[in-house]
Amino acid sequence: MRAGPVRVGVIGTGVMGADHAWRLDEAISGAVVSAVVDMDIGRASRVAAGLDGARVALDAMELIAADDVDAVIVASADETHEAFVLACLAAGKPVLCEKPLAPTASAARRILDAEQAHETPLISIGFMRRFDPGYLELKAVLNRGSVGAPLVVHCIHRNAGAPAGVTGAEVVTGSAIHEIDVARWLLDEEIVAVTARSPHHRRRAGSAPDPLLLSLESESGTVVDVEVFVDASYGYDVRCEVVGETGAISLDAPAATVVRLEGQRRESLAADWRPRFSEAYRRELQDWVASVRAGTPSGAATAWDGYLATVVAGAAVESLARGERVVIAEPERYGAAG
Ligand SMILES: NC(=O)c1ccc[n+]([C@@H]2O[C@H](COP(=O)([O-])OP(=O)(O)OC[C@H]3O[C@@H](n4cnc5c(N)ncnc54)[C@H](O)[C@@H]3O)[C@@H](O)[C@H]2O)c1
Q1: How far apart, in whole angstroms, are the C-alpha atoms of residue 284 and residue 128?
Q2: Which residues pair with 125 in a beta bridge?
Q3: Distance 30 CA to ligand 1 centre (A)
Q4: Which atom of ligand 1 is the closest one to the Cα of 16?
Q5: Are 298 and 173 in contact (CB under 8 A)?
Q6: Fewer CB within 10 Å, N or C, the chain?
Q7: Ligand 1 atom 20 nearest Cα
Q8: Mutational test site, ligand 1, from 13, 19, 38, max ligand atoms within 8 Å of CB
C-alpha cells in the first residue's frame, strides 16, 4: 500500500476533466490533484484555482513525466487519448482514460499491445455505468436468474443537445459506445454482428444520423436494440430494459422529486450526464484511487474492454455507411489479448 495520497494529474479541464478534478478534490479519499493541463491555459488556470494546491502543467507530456504526478486522468478530446495513454504506459503510470479508449479499433489495439509489456494492467476506462447503482442492481437481478435468460435488451440514450457538426462516427464512438459497453458487461458476452440505421429527419436533412438505431447481436443470440438521439432537445434521458424469458427488469431515470400540481405529475430531467451519473463517477474514481494506492487492477473496464467496444463501434460505423448488417470477425473477438 502506497503511503500518502495518490497525486493525480488531469489532462483536459473541459466538462469531464473539471468534474473529475473537483470530485477528486472534494469527495474522494486518498488522492490529491497535483497538476492539471489544457490546451486552453485560461481554462486550466480557472480549474486549478478552485483546487487545493494544484499547479498548471506546461503541456500534457510534461504532466505525465512529472515527479509530482503518480497517476493520470485523460479527459481531453477523443483523438488525443492514444498519444497520452501511450505516454502514461511508457512512464509506467496508472491512467484512467475517459471513454472511448481511442476513436478507432486500430488505435485502441496499439494501446492494448503496449499495455501487454507491463505485468500489472495500468489502464482503466471511464465507462462509469459499470459503477452506477441502478445498472449494478439491473445486472445483479439478471444474474440471479429469476427473469430467465435475457432475450432482448432495450437501450435509450438521449441528450438535450449536440455540438454543431457532429458526425455519424462521433455519435457512435462518443455516445453509442456507452451502450456497446453496457451490452457486453450486462450479458457477459461478445457482440458478433451489428446493424445500424437512421430514420429520415425532415427538419435536419443532410445532418448526422440522429437518432441512430443499432441492433447488436450477442454470441448466444440476445438482441440489444439501441436508440441514441444526441439532439433530442428535451433533456438527458438514459434508460435500459432487459426482457427475459419470464420477466423484465427496467432501469429508469431516478428523479429526486416529483411535483403533483394542477392536474399533472412532473419529474425533472437532468440537462446532461453529470447529475444523472454523479454517484457512478464518485464510485469509479474512489475505486480507481484505491487500486492505484494498493497497486492492484481497478474494477473499471480494462483496455481489452475499451478495445472491444471500439471494434463493435467500428462495425456500427461500417454498417451505417454500407446500409447492411456487419458481422464482427472472429480474430477481432478472440485476439491474442483476450
Ligand atoms: N464518461 C462520460 O460520461 C463522458 C461524458 C462526456 C465526455 N466524455 C469523454 O471525456 C473526454 C472529454 O470530454 P468533454 O465533454 O469534457 O470535452 P470538452 O471539450 O469539454 O473538454 C475537452 C478538453 O480537452 C482539451 N484538450 C484537447 N486537446 C488537448 C491537448 N492536446 N492537450 C491538452 N488539452 C487538450 C480541450 O481544450 C478541452 O478543454 C472525451 O474523451 C469524451 O468522450 C465522457
Answers
A1: 6
A2: 97, 301
A3: 24
A4: 16
A5: no
A6: N
A7: 14
A8: 38
**What's the rounded Cα separation, in Å, for the pair 261 and 268?**
13
CB distance 71 to 91 below 8 Å: no
Residues found in the chain = 338
Contact 304, 335 (CB under 8 A): no
What's the rounded mean pLDDT across residues 15-24? 98
> Look-up: residue for cell 459506445?
177
Give me 116's grid cell.
501487454
User: Best mutation site among 39, 40, 76, 285 for ligand 1, i.e. most ligand atoms within 8 A of its Cβ?
Assistant: 76
Where does ligand 1 bind, in terms of residues with CB under 6 Å? 11-17, 37-40, 43, 60, 75-78, 80, 98-99, 126, 128, 174, 273
pLDDT, tens only, 271-304: 899 999 999 999 999 999 999 999 999 999 999 9
Contacts of 25 (CB under 8 A, 6+ apart): 32, 33, 50, 51, 52, 54
Total-model pTM: 0.95
pLDDT tens-digit profile of 204-248?
655 788 899 999 999 999 999 999 999 999 999 999 999 999 999
In terms of Cβ atoms closer than 10 Å to its own Cβ (0-12, 13-18, 19+), residue 247 is exposed
